[in-house]
Amino acid sequence: MIGILVAEQLPLVRRGLVASLECEADLKVVADLGRGEEVLPAVLRHEPEVAVIGLDLPGVDGFAVALRLHEEAPRCRVLLLSGNPTPGQVRRAFSVQALGFMSLDVGPDQLADGVRRVAAGRRAVDSELALAALELVENPLTRRELDVLRLAAQGARSGEIADQLFLSVGTVRNHLSRIMCKTHARNRLDAVRIAGDSGWL
């Protein structure tokens, strides 16, 4: 019997995941919850073999949860779920040591098979997404440029970014200009989208 923790913010989606997994004779959901910060305590308490985690958890997102589990509860393997999967998300999933990455659109049989593969220590990723992830270009942005772009992604203006990073407004504008040049973006919002889709943020 494979013990599973399910973490997904939307109650209806979470119930559907639980019901689908519970239909399998060899799978048992030992806990289900809706917030990222609840995952590690629940894993330590219930000791599931696999955590099935939605990316868009409130509080702490799925990527951060996966990394925390790898560091503090490594016997629990992670399968991440995305409502809008991209090759960049696959790359990020691998970087935080998740073994599985699937779309929320997969069928019940695929999900159950993915859980079994992850429990056995094997990868469970859609082959087309995995191939696309391998073909992504390497991140051309510097660490400081990423800091600037992360704040821009949160809606911060140049002056606010400058204040938070202890830079001049002119330096921030230069960073944004270089970011748009490197990503071939039309504007900062387009740069945020491109960097997010590529798994750089």
Specify the structural class. alpha/beta
Going across the major beta sheet, what is the strand order? Answer: 2-1-3-4-5-6
Biggest sheet features: 6 strands, parallel
Shape: elongated
Q: What is the CA-atom radius of gyration, in angstroms?
A: 19 Å
Tally of individual helices: 10
> Termini, distance in Å?
37 Å
Strands, count: 6
Q: What is the average per-residue confidence, as pLDDT, rounded to a whole number?
A: 89
Poorly predicted sequence stretches spanning 5 or more consecutive residues: none
- Beta content comes to 5-15%
Helix content: 40-55%
Topology as a string of helices (H) and strands (E): EHEHEHEHEHEHHHHH
Which labels suit this protein?
201 residues, alpha/beta, 15% strand, six-stranded parallel β-sheet
In a few lines, what is going on in this structure?
It contains 10 helices and 6 strands, in the order βαβαβαβαβαβααααα.
Describe the structure.
By secondary structure, the protein is an alpha/beta fold. The chain contains 10 helices and 6 strands, in the order βαβαβαβαβαβααααα. Helix 7 packs across helix 9 (169-183) and helix 7 packs across helix 10. The two termini are 37 Å apart.
